Amino acid sequence: MCMLSNRCLLVGMIILTLTAGGYAADKDEMKKKVVDLVELTLNDLAKDTPATIEKINQGAEPYQSKTDAELYAFVYDTDVSIVAHPKKDLVGRNFKGKPDVRGKKFRDEIVEKAVKDGSGWVDYSYQKPGEAGIHPKSTYCKTVKGSDGKQYVVCAGMYLD
Length: 161
Known about the structure:
Blueprint: H1 6-47, H2 49-57, E1 73-77, E2 82-84, H3 106-117, E3 119-127, E4 134-145, E5 151-159
Antiparallel strand pairs: 1-2, 1-5, 3-4, 4-5
Helix pairs in contact: 1-2
């Protein structure tokens, strides 16, 4: 039995450090995947907007990961309407002024940040695919001029829990 000896405390601290380090590495890896997906999507929108939007709406790879349901691209226009999303019932809907369950108008903030700053991260609360409840989420957003000449806000996110 381990009775809070220095040795047991040291072992506990090592385990905690390794676990926390793994968590941070996982978050950094996911953050990179999110940014890479946004970059890939905006490059494709700049080359062929209609085909890219169609593929996103179909939930096709690479715009929606088949191994990680939480990793998918979605696109807003500058009026906060969803132009492309693998969840088809959201496409075409305008979300201007609509808050999350905690009152944050995160969609407005996403579009505003992307248009004003070019890119950035926005934190909010959202449902996680395949799970009940509301979870903290962070979305990376960036503007692009599509091949059709219109400006779009390309997004992908990650859950923080």
